[in-house]
């Protein structure tokens, strides 16, 4: 059987989650490997959530927020951009494949972008294979 | 030019005495004798008579800024600061943990400080590449000039070149050694949370016993908490009983932060800590 | 131990087609703390809801999971079901297996597997949910309307008629807005002044409306139900409480300023009212053109004023206004077309923008309603260029929506008032509105020429000095047209007010890509914003015509009323709070909060959050190093548990 | 004749796959056609070309060669359609089917056989230099990239020499490429031969790499644009006009000769201006030369008119009355200028041709900015120069 990765998504309520809904409403097809946690704003995402997700066995983590400047809380994603950038650098220096973590700005009207990103990211994670470095073995 | 540690010690004593006598400071944070010359101790002088106990030598690595947050607001504190230590003070001022006007900074321009465990000279490794304090009120000696400037990030080169498998193996080995004594956060001037996130029960971020996954969670999160704040004094690594080179990871994060946000920690009291700040024109490239 | 009920919806075949719903319900029953698991055709229908109510009672359920469509769709519906059954509404969890599962796959295996994982995450999260209490606050019954154009006027009148007190803030010295500049309105061609001025007068006369002209909002504090707004009253140099509007002063004034009202086509006095039907009818002094302010001598107006109303010493003052809700109706600007050098606006006197032409048509305008060029002659040939700066990646991507129709109106008025040939250069003709297509037909019959091709360039004629040549391709014949004309009318993009972003910042609104105010939801909440209690109406939200603007004004008034009609109101409970025992006093939360909700208590050395200001974004919780901040309903342990559940399958 | 057609979407798809992706964005407003300098004087219709491409209609071959890739339409297009990419893709798809016009066949043939468009002997590429100037080696700072046109075209050889002399004067360390290089391929790409273009490009890149080239000076804006857009990001590329302006600013070059008030105007080459955004440098240079009375033409800078030489136009025959260069000369004459300066060998070739056919060669001279600088430095390179008409 081919490798079916588990991908954790964390999406902001106002843009990316709504964009994901739009992808559904317009019946776009994308791989089913992504499971999305809804938070109110991408700025809610604590870096430890991401470390934890990899420990829980996520093969990839995809974060979605509003485009910079369009945040429903004005500036939340501008803080998130910095904080998530640092998170990415930390993962990278610890030896995790940088391609396993991705941040995308997807607005409520970008259902197609959501589907494209998920498709592309899933393919990328498949090519990276299972994530074993952080995963806590039972 | 060579550094006369004795001369610095004398000046430290003189200034400490003057400040305590005049009431300009009610405590002086400096160094005192330990069980041998290689192991001086952090020392707090409260009375002019205490000043005789003050010492300074090449093993006085402690970052005395660590102790500033222990005193009630408004306490007038004089503190001996080397280059990295002064950056810690600046960072604490940025974070509004201490007020500039409550402090007298006794700046120590110095090089050739040594790690008592290894006898290794720490210049360029854990001094942020600086010899002179960034901020001071009184300078105990002449500014150091002409000493080779070393980039604080040079020591990273070998680790950056490692492929990700080797780097993961390296850090896994290091983090697996951790016995969770928390000496690193005790020694760190910027770790003033009480309780620390890892001590929380709700939520439980990671296992509290020394297991690999809890260790990983503790260290990676701590690196994030210190991102844009770590001033490269190296105290975490010297405090570590199992010799985890934490300073390397902190340095890497500091380097990335400096490149991404154009600001190094503790260089100006006008700055805002980089991770609770943003610029509208921060590039999305930083996420790539 | 909690007692969870899981209710799986088929949504007809919408879900059931690609998720095996009964298998999902059987799976749910095996999960920890799940007491009941059922599937049903339409969970949101009355029988579906009743099923949940009955099960809550029968099985003493204390957590409900509805596995159905997006929470953005029916969360409120099911929350009400919980409330009706005596359960706290925050104990509901929605699992989105329609928009994010069944609709995005054709494979029933994949769909069922993903739905299971999502449901498992929801069960884990659900176990950690806690009841939350909405906060109740007193509501100030007054409303502020910002912007005195047709939208603001209409909204103010509606609210005032219900007995609410309204503050109408306008930055100009008169209300009326752009609509008061027009002569006729499309498609009915009724006279703009005839329908607008009675409304302006009604505002003036209304006992419940405080009209604040020459005023700007300078600070906004507080929150829904209790806004505390500072308004800057700009110095008018005329004491309006003394002025009796005799306007003797304006006759004597020697000063000359450029008439903003007439789009700089003519001059006006330095002490003036912008146009004869202005409301209020009381003048202001323009410092820039006033002889006394420039030279220190004159004071002719002062001498002419029997009421002693002239006050050269007057300063800006600040007025505090307390209201429960705010309507923003700040309108639009026209794009400055000077940078589009190919059209020669500002370079050739024969090139006009749309608002200038509106003034030329207006009988109270600079030419008394006669269409004449700047040299006084009547144009014999006129080109109207559509989409100047609109629908244009290099300028503004949006369609400005009303230009097609007002351009048609221009053509009609040109035909009526001159004997000129009129040409339209257009890309697409957009006439979607009641009576609009009919109007288009009428204009075609008036023998206006339509050239399907965007105007590419306006140049000076080489053969006939003083005339202009419009160059474009007629894409229908594929021919290159060089059309000599006397007058070119540009229909420029409608853009947000130059200060729209400042206003957005003041009221904590987002703006869209173009800079128009962002509505809460493009379809279901077009007049509300992300800031509770702040509503928007008219073109400040996006370009629209007068009927739509007025409809929005009514709507926004009703929206505002839903707040101020109540004495007390409930706020969303999903705010953040500080656990003082864990707070390390780092003040990160204070530094980052866009709403100023957290503050530092220096005495206790901990941060505190004013929940009335908190919008629940959770930023503070993620920057809190010691995990002392609890983002209610999205707490760290709730998110971690959900993640754990999601990753298990 | 029936007017019935069926859209042939496979063709449209082929165009998109050849790099004309942008064509689907077009909403046919005609801004491009209204802007295109060819529309008033020829039957070429750029909008229709895109339209035919969108539907994959037959008959596209009739007018696909009209575009000189001046980029005016691209800058004005409200949809942001990269029209030049569309043109290139269409030419690529169709010329693959052997539909090259006669006049371009020798051009492409020479490129393929000799690596330059002028049927020049590759071994003689540097013959113009008569071994007076250094060859590039790794220790040199700048590679002076001699465009094929300045190597082989007798009129433009003057430009090559002027550049080399000024480089010598400036004290920079520089050298010429060896004869192994070939044409940058810019015009070849625009006539649609993407495959041959890739071959030329990879040969040039190999030469650059083997010699350690980092900084390149070009005299032709076409090479400039090609290197910048298609040759990757490893090179620092400067047009010579930019370098002269910089050297003059730094005081390393000081013009001496006073021209005594002669009126000069400047033509913005499309590839230096709109394609590369360089407008000020050549003007700064002209204004710094003593005694030149600089005047602008009505259409200048971003609004500048095309000479017709881009996109393969230099090698195509155009009827009288259908030549942009003729119109441009008339515009220059209207300013009263005695010198029409420019900074592109293609423009020079086109204009030299036009002044002759218009019998205006006694009224206005065509000069490269570089040549004027050389003259003001009072360096004489005069040798008998062959007549351009002999080409």
Q: How would you portray this structure in words?
A:
- The complex is a heterotetramer of chains A (138), B (288), C (649) and D (391).
- Helices cover 40% and strands 17% of the residues of chain A.
- In chain A, strand 3, helix 3 (76-93) and strand 4 form a beta-alpha-beta unit.
- Chain A contains 4 helices and 4 strands; from the N terminus they run βαβαβαβα.
- Chain A is α/β, with parallel strands linked by helices and 138 residues long.
- Chain A has a single domain, classed as Rossmann fold, CATH 3.40.50.960.
- In chain A, strands 2-1-3-4 form a 4-stranded parallel β-sheet, sandwiched between helices.
- Chain A has helices at residues 16-25, 47-55, 76-93, 111-128; strands at 7-12, 34-39, 60-65, 101-105.
- Chain B is of the alpha/beta class.
- Chain B has 8 helices and 5 strands, in the order H-E-E-E-H-E-E-H-H-H-H-H-H.
- In chain B, strand 1 (27-32) and strand 2 form a beta hairpin.
- Chain B is globular.
- By secondary structure, chain C is of the alpha/beta class.
- Chain C is built from 18 helices and 34 strands.
- In chain C, the strands form 12 sheets. Chain C has a 5-stranded parallel β-sheet, with helices on one face. A 5-stranded parallel β-sheet of chain C has the order 20-27-21-22-23. A 4-stranded parallel β-sheet of chain C has the order 2-1-3-4, sandwiched between helices.
- In chain C, helix 3 (46-59) crosses helix 4.
- Chain D is an alpha/beta fold.
- Chain D has 3 domains: 9-95, no CATH class; 114-246, Glutathione S-transferase Yfyf (Class Pi), Chain A, domain 2 (Up-down Bundle), CATH 1.20.1050; 254-390, Rossmann fold.
- Helix content of chain D is 42%, strand content 8%.
- Chain D has 16 helices and 8 strands.
- A 4-stranded parallel β-sheet of chain D has the order 2-1-3-4, sandwiched between helices. Chain D has a 4-stranded parallel β-sheet with strand order 6-5-7-8, sandwiched between helices.
- In chain D, strand 5, helix 13 and strand 6 (292-295) form a beta-alpha-beta unit.
- Chain D is globular, with a radius of gyration of 21 Å.
- The N and C termini of chain D lie far apart (44 Å).
- Residues 384-391 of chain D have low confidence and may be disordered.
- Chains in contact: A-B, A-C, B-C, C-D.
- The interface between A and B is large, with 34 and 39 residues.
């Amino acid at each position: 059987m081919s490798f079916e990765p588990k991908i954790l998504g964390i999406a902001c309520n106002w843009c990316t989650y709504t964009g994901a809904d739009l992808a559904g409403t317009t019946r776009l097809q994308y791989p089913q490997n992504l499971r999305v946690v809804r938070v109110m704003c991408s700025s809610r995402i604590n870096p430890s959530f991401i470390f934890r997700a990899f420990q829980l066995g996520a093969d990839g983590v995809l974060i979605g927020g509003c485009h910079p400047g369009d945040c429903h809380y004005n500036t939340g994603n501008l803080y998130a951009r910095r904080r998530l950038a640092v998170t990415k650098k930390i993962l990278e220096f610890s030896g995790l494949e940088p391609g396993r973590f991705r941040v995308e700005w997807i607005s409520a009207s970008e259902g197609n972008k959501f589907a494209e990103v998920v498709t592309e990211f899933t393919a990328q994670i498949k090519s990276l294979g299972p994530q074993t470095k952080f995963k806590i073995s039972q | 030019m060579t550094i006369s540690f004795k001369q610095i010690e004398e000046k430290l004593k003189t200034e400490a005495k003057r400040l305590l006598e005049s009431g300009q400071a009610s405590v002086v944070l400096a160094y005192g004798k330990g069980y041998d010359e290689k192991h001086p101790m952090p020392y707090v002088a409260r009375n002019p008579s205490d000043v005789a106990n003050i010492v300074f030598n090449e093993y006085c690595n402690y970052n005395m800024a660590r102790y500033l947050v222990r005193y009630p607001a408004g306490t007038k504190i004089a503190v001996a600061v080397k280059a990295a230590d002064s950056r810690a003070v600046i960072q604490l001022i940025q974070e509004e943990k201490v007020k500039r006007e409550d402090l007298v900074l006794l700046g120590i321009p110095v090089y050739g400080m040594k790690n008592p465990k290894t006898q290794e000279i720490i210049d360029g490794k854990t001094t942020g590449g600086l010899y002179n304090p960034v901020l001071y009120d009184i300078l105990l000696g002449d500014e150091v000039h002409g000493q080779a400037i070393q980039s604080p990030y040079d020591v990273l080169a070998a680790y950056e070149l490692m492929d990700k498998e080797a780097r993961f193996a390296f850090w896994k080995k290091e983090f697996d050694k951790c016995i969770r004594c928390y000496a690193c956060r005790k020694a760190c001037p910027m770790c003033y949370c009480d309780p620390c996130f890892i001590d929380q029960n709700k939520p439980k971020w990671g296992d509290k016993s020394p297991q690999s996954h809890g260790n990983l969670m503790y260290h990676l999160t701590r690196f994030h908490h210190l991102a844009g704040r770590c001033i490269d004094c190296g105290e975490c690594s010297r405090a570590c009983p199992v010799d985890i080179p934490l300073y390397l990871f902190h340095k890497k994060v500091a380097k990335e932060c400096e490149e991404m946000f154009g600001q190094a920690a503790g260089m100006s009291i006008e700055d805002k800590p980089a991770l609770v700040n943003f610029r509208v024109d921060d590039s999305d490239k930083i996420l790539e | 131990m909690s007692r969870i009920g899981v209710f799986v919806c088929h949504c007809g075949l919408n879900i059931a087609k690609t998720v095996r719903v009964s298998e999902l319900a059987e799976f749910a029953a095996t999960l920890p703390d799940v007491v009941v698991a059922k599937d049903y055709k339409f969970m949101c229908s009355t029988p579906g809801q009743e099923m949940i109510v009955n099960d809550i009672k029968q099985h003493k359920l204390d957590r409900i999971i509805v596995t159905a469509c997006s929470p953005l769709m029916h969360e409120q519906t099911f929350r009400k079901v919980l409330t009706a059954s005596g359960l706290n509404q925050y104990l509901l969890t929605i699992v989105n297996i329609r928009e994010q599962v069944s609709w995005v796959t054709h494979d029933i295996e994949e769909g069922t597997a993903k739905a299971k994982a999502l449901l498992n995450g929801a069960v884990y999260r659900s176990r950690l949910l806690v009841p939350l209490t909405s906060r109740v606050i007193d509501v100030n019954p007054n409303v502020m309307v910002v912007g005195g154009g047709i939208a603001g006027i209409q909204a103010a009148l509606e609210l005032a008629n219900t007995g609410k007190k309204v503050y109408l803030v306008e930055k100009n010295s008169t209300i009326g807005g752009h609509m008061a500049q027009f002569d006729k309105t499309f498609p009915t061609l009724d006279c703009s002044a005839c329908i607008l001025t009675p409304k302006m007068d009604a505002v003036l006369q209304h006992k419940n409306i405080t009209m604040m002209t020459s005023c700007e909002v300078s600070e906004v504090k507080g929150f829904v139900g209790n806004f505390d707004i500072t308004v800057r009253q700009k110095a008018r140099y005329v004491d309006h409480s003394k002025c009796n509007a005799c306007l003797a002063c304006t006759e004597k004034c020697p000063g000359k300023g450029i008439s903003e009202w007439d789009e700089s086509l003519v001059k006006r006095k330095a002490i003036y009212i912008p146009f004869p039907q202005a409301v209020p009818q009381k003048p202001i002094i323009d410092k820039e053109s006033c002889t006394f302010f420039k030279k220190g001598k004159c004071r002719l107006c002062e001498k002419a004023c029997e009421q002693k109303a002239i006050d050269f010493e007057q300063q800006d003052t600040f007025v505090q206004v307390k209201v429960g809700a705010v309507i923003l109706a700040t309108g639009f600007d026209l794009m400055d077309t000077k940078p589009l050098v190919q059209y020669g606006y500002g370079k050739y006197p024969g090139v006009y923008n749309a608002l200038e032409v509106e003034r030329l048509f207006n009988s109270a305008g600079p030419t008394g309603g006669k269409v004449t060029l700047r040299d006084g002659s009547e144009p014999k040939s006129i080109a109207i260029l559509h989409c100047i700066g609109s629908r244009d990646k290099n300028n503004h991507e949006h369609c400005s929506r009303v230009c097609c129709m007002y351009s048609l109106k221009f053509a009609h008025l040109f035909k009526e008032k001159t004997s000129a040939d009129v040409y339209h250069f257009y890309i697409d003709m957009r006439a979607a509105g009641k009576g609009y297509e009919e109007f288009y037909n009428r204009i075609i019959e008036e023998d206006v020429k339509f050239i399907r091709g965007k105007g590419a360039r306006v140049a000076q004629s080489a053969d006939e000095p003083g005339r202009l040549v419009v160059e474009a391709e007629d894409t229908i014949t594929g021919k290159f047209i060089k059309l000599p004309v006397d007058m070119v009318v540009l229909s420029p993009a409608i853009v947000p007010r130059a200060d729209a972003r400042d206003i957005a910042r003041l009221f904590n609104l987002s703006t869209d890509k173009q800079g128009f105010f962002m509505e809460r939801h493009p379809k279901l909440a077009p007049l509300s914003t992300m800031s509770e209690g702040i509503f928007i109406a008219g073109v400040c939200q996006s370009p629209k015509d007068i009927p739509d603007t007025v409809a929005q004004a009514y709507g926004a008034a009703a929206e505002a009323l839903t707040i101020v009609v109540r004495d007390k109101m409930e706020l969303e409970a999903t705010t953040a709070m500080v656990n003082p025992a864990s707070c390390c006093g780092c003040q990160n939360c204070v530094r980052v909060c866009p709403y100023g909700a957290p503050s530092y208590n220096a005495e206790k050395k901990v941060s505190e959050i004013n929940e009335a200001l908190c919008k629940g974004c959770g930023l503070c919780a993620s920057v809190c190093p010691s995990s002392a901040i609890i983002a209610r309903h999205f707490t760290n342990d709730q998110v971690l548990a959900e993640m754990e559940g999601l990753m298990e399958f | 004749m029936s007017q019935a057609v069926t859209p042939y979407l496979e063709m449209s798809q082929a165009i998109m796959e050849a790099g004309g992706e942008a064509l689907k964005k077009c909403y046919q407003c005609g801004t491009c056609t209204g802007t295109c300098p060819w529309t008033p004087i020829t039957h070429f219709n750029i909008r229709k070309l895109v339209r035919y491409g969108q539907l994959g209609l037959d008959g596209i071959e009739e007018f696909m060669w009209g575009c000189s890739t001046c980029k005016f339409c691209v800058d004005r297009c409200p949809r942001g359609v990269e029209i030049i990419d569309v043109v290139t893709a269409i030419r690529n798809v169709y010329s693959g089917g052997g539909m090259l016009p006669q006049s371009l066949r020798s051009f492409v043939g020479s490129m393929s056989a000799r690596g330059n468009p002028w049927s020049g002997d590759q071994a003689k590429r540097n013959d113009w230099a008569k071994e007076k100037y250094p060859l590039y080696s790794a220790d040199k700072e700048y590679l002076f990239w001699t465009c094929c046109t300045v190597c082989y075209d007798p009129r433009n050889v003057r430009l090559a020499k002027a550049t080399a002399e000024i480089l010598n004067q400036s004290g920079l360390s520089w050298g010429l490429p060896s004869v192994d290089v070939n044409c940058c391929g810019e015009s070849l790409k625009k006539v649609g031969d993407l495959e041959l273009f890739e071959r030329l490009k990879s040969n040039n890149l190999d030469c650059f790499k083997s010699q350690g080239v980092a900084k390149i000076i070009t005299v032709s804006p076409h090479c400039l644009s090609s290197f910048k857009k298609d040759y990757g990001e490893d090179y620092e590329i400067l047009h010579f006009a930019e370098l002269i302006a910089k050297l003059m600013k730094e005081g390393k070059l000081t013009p001496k000769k006073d021209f005594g008030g002669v009126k000069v105007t400047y033509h913005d080459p499309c590839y230096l201006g709109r394609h590369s955004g360089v407008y000020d440098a050549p003007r700064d240079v002209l204004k710094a030369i003593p005694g030149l009375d600089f005047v602008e033409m009505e259409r200048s800078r971003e609004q500048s008119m095309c000479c017709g030489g881009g996109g393969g136009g230099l090698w195509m025959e155009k009827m009288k009355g259908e030549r942009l260069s003729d119109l441009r000369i008339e515009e220059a004459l209207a300013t009263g200028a005695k010198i029409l300066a420019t900074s592109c060998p293609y423009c020079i070739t086109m204009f030299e041709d036009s002044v002759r056919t218009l019998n205006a060669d006694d009224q206005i001279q065509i000069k490269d900015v570089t040549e004027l600088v050389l003259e003001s430095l009072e360096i004489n390179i005069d040798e008998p120069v062959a007549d351009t008409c002999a080409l």
